[in-house]
Amino acid sequence: MSGTHAHTAAYVRDTMLPEQAPPATSVGVLGWMRANLFSNWFNAILTLLSVAFIYQVLAAILPWVFQSSWTANSLNECRAQIDAAYGPHAEGACWAVIRERYLQLIFGFYPSELYWRPILAFALTLAALGPVLFTALPRKMLWLSVAAPFLVPWLLWGGSAWVPVAVALGFVLGYVAFRVVASVAGALLGAIAAGLVPVLWWLLLASGWAGLMQSVLPLGIEAVDSRNFGGFMLSITIGVVAIACSLPIGVLLALGRQSNLLIIKAICTGFIELIRGVPLITLLFVASLLLNYFMPPGTDFDIILRVIIMVTLFASAYMAEVIRGGLAALPKGQYEAADALGLDYWKAQRLIIMPQALKISIPGIVSTFIGVFKDTTLVSIIGLLDPLGFSNSIRANAEWNGIVWELYGFIAFMFFVFCFSMSRYSMYLERKLQTEHR
Amino acid sequence: MTTMTDPPKDSFRLGMLIYDTRYRSLTIQVVALIAFMLLAAWLISNTAQNLAALGKPINFGFLSGPAQYDINQTLIPYDNQDSHLRASVVGLLNTLLVAVLGCVLATVVGVLVGVLRLSRNWLVGRIMTVYVEMFRNVPVLLWIVFAMAILIESLPAPRDFRGDTPQASMLFADSVALTNRGFYIPKPVFDRSLGGNPEAPAPEAAPVSPAPPTGVVGMTGGSSRIATGGGSAAPGAAAPGQAPQGQSGAAPTGAQPASSALDWLVILGVFGGSLLGARAIGRWADRKQEATGLRPRTIWVQLAVVFVPVIMVLMALGVRLERPELTGFNFDGGIHMRNSLIALWLALSFYTAAFIAEIVRGGILAISKGQTEAAAALGLRPNRIMSLVILPQALRVIIPPLISQYLNLTKNSSLAIAVGYMDITGTLGGITMNQTGRELECVLLLMLCYLVISLLISVVMNWYNNRVKLVER
Questions:
Q1: Where in the cell is it found (chain B) (predicted)?
Q2: Given this model, what pLDDT does residue B68 score?
């Protein structure tokens, strides 16, 4: 073919040309800008508008953030300092209020000589969460995770060390009851005994036992009243407890709603829809105004505990719906395969269904966590001093009357840090558990 | 085969309630029901005992008593002698108002942000990511109080609009004023109102006429415009609420033209009828297309059917826009949207929009690229690909979570209490509850209201889900 062609064509190339460098406009910074910022006239306009917008925002915010005062003791002093340093028309932030009040914003009215306790409790919480969240950590740390739910409240509220021991003993008794009864009378009766024995222990005997032990062997730390709780400590306390408790309750509710036992299903569905149909604020009204009505006359339990209960119920209902979504997304074959293997209901759930369903619903679970944590700010409406409630009381102070942005900015920043890291963790977890081939 | 025996027809033993799977589920359910009823009975008896000890048995009679408090933003006429029930209804309407406004704005912003976040423009994509993360990771309550603070601190006071060289000026040909007391926008009023409105103009007309000192009114920049309303009015009474008197000879003396509920009902009814008519024309065009293959061009007829009747009704009612005017130290006339409403509306909308943006983005990403390519291979143009192939599939993914975001927005509107907007949480769950001391009844009613709203929205959602559900094997 080429031979015949050689007679008619004047010139035939018989060697390959060497590779040439790509044009300068399609590589490097220039190429990237052309592809991503100026690919056509519309994109170019968008880019220019965006640059103008960013410039406007930064020009408004940055001078305010950095032409600031950190040392003043009141708002007026702050303004005087900023005027002196940056000229009479300078608008600057008065970060001094954060410097002066950050301890209060974090700990509320917790006695300052006892700050080590919430700090230790927080560290303990992190250490307890560590092995749950990251499998690379040593498995022995899980013992810490088991102990933390009893140690942390004790550290925060103080009091006799025998109370958390009595509470923990309830769980031990429940386990023992399960083993004993199950070996004698079967698993179902064992489960009932495991539910009944601890409740009876806590209701009837635990306080007496703890009091007795306390009188025999006094062991305890100074008690701190709930009304001294405040700031981020309060938010984190409510948030962590609600998050930790809502997951198991949510799993149970979701299973109940999916089950084919009609009455159980009706109860679970009713509960979930009732809670999800009303705003959290009405549930907080229930906590602050009505919950004491529902209890036997004379009981008066702590407002923070009441709020925690309602927030937990609220979070559980949302969690249940998220997990139900995960359960519904599982192919039916998984259920049938579990049945075919001869697994009973709980074994099938534990070994086959739940691991997959929970994995599917990780994004939803984490965004529920984030939502619950953000919603803890609502307690300021019923008068608890969470960071937002505290910022109002700081503003009511004569020295800082009129300060707005610095406090809101600080609180928003703290919340952002917590919530953003949670959402990043969920992405990490999703990637780690990703088993499909892509 | 012969080895197989029938299950023994044994007599029923008590143990079978636990060990026989046929009966076990029944046992569990009965036990659960009994436990549930015991719990409920325990709670109710405790409540009854506690309430009896306090001497306030459950009684909803307080709702008919006079409320004796003012509500600064109302959609229906209300004054402090009306009953608690009416105050609650006003609050409920306020909740619905902010919910509807919020849903509309949140959808617009959310769709825009969601689409822009997918933009090939790197900078725009990053800005939208920052917006979404910023709003999603900070509590909505903080955004609400933050928006309130921005409105109060950064907008000019009404007095800044005064004088020959005012520091601030109104927008859109002097018809909209953004002040730190709220936004003043024009209000449509009807010169030939159907209602005869014995009550409607009361909020603005009654308190205004005696109020402003004449000297201050003379200073206002708006006095020249007021003059068109009829020079007969005394300067002190030249408030916009009364200005129309001179203009419309048709208005009987004493009764002042304004908007009444009846007018709006008529307008809405006509508009709804027009929409149905336009839809019928569309169906007719569909049938014609099925039969002949050619689609008649109906867009102009449809537009005319939708808008001409409404415009005619509006003209028949003698609609005018009543502009807010600066009188004395404040604006009068027009619609006053208070700061609390604006702050709540903006904060809720932008907060929810961040979630909606993620939903929209997810929905668009969920449609595989093959769909676009297949449609292009069929020869469809890009806009037809979007409207016929991508959107119908994406909407199926987007709508259900979108509606649950609407639900969240409605529930979050209860945070109005933080900025003093009187929604139902502020009236029924706030002042009424504090005045009457009826916590149980108020909180129950409050929950019931929200529950009904939620259930209605859920019904809509389920109806939609069933309609667009893929038919599976």
A1: Cell inner membrane; Cell membrane
A2: 81
Statement: residue B473 has pLDDT above 50: no
Q: For B36, which residue in chain A has the nearest alpha carbon?
A: A267
Structure tokens that stand for A313 in this block: 């119920």
- Chain A and chain B share a number of CB contacts under 8 A equal to 157
- Check the CA dihedral A83-A88-A92-A93 and report its sign: positive
**Cβ neighbours, 10 Å, residue A186:** 13
Asked if residue A78 is part of any domain, the answer here is no
Does one domain contain both A312 and A412? Answer: yes
Identify whether A404 is part of a domain.
yes
Q: Are B257 and B248 in contact (CB under 8 A)?
A: yes
Same structural domain, A201 and A298: no
Of the options 2.40.50.140, 1.20.1730.10, 3.10.150.10, 1.10.3720.10, the CATH number for the domain spanning B84-156+336-442: 1.10.3720.10
At how many degrees (to 10) do helices A405-432 and B140-154 cross?
150
Name every chain B residue with its beta carbon within 8 A of the beta carbon of A39.
120-121
Q: How far is A17 from chain B (nearest CA, A)?
A: 35
DSSP letters along B211-223, please?
SS-HHHHHH-TTH
Of the three residues A168, A194, A221, the one that is the final residue of a domain is: A221
pLDDT at residue B5 greater than cutoff 60: no
Q: Which residues of chain A have a CB within 8 Å of the CB of B47?
A: 293-294
- At B332 the three-state DSSP class reads strand
Whether A437 has a pLDDT exceeding 60, the answer reads: no
pLDDT in tens, A322-337: 999 889 888 889 889 9
CA distance B5 to B309: 81
Q: DSSP per residue over B142-153, as a string?
A: HHHHHHHHHHHH
- What is the separation, in whole angstroms, between the first and last Cα of chain A? 45
Nearest chain B Cα distance for residue A415, angstroms: 6
- Which contiguous run of DSSP H or E holds residue A160? strand A159-160
Range name among A351-365, B11-25, B93-107 with the lowest pLDDT average: B11-25
CB contact under 8 Å between B123 and A404, yes or no, is no
A103 in helix, strand or coil? helix
Backbone phi and psi for residue B189, each to the nearest 5 degrees, phi listed first: -125, 155
Q: How far does the CA of residue B399 sit from the closest CA of chain A (Å)?
A: 16
Cβ neighbours, 10 Å, residue A211: 14
Any idea where the domains of chain B sit in the sequence? 84-156+336-442, 197-224+234-329
Nearest to B91 by CA among B337, B410, B340, B424: B424
Whole-complex ipTM: 0.86
Q: What one-character-per-residue DSSP string does B239-263 give?
A: -TTTTHHHH-TTSPSSPPP---HHH
Structural domain count of chain A = 3
**Cβ contact, residue pair A263, B24, below 8 Å:** no
Those residues with Cβ within 8 angstroms of residue B201's Cβ, 6 or more apart along the chain or in another chain: B241, B256, B257, B258
Residue A84 lies in a domain: no
Residue A190 pLDDT exceeds 50: yes
Query: Quick one: A317 and A205 in the same domain?
Result: no
Residue A346 and residue A379 share a domain: yes
Which tops the pLDDT comparison, B351 or A294? B351
Task: Please enumerate in sequence order all residues whose Cβ is within 8 A of that of A108, keeping only pairs 6 or more positions apart, or say none.
Answer: A228, A229, A230, A231, A233, A234, A385, A390
Domain that holds residue A44: 30-62
- Residues written for chain B: 473
Strands in B177-179's sheet, in edge-to-edge order, are: B177-179, B182-185, B335-338
Q: Is the pLDDT of residue B113 over 80?
A: yes
pLDDT digit string, tens, across residues A100-112: 888 888 888 888 8
Residue pair B282/B298 in contact by the 8 Å Cβ criterion: yes
- Verify that A38 and A56 share a domain, yes or no: yes
Residue B83 dihedral angles phi and psi, to the nearest 5°: -80, 165
Q: Within 10 Å of residue A122's Cβ, how many Cβ atoms?
A: 19
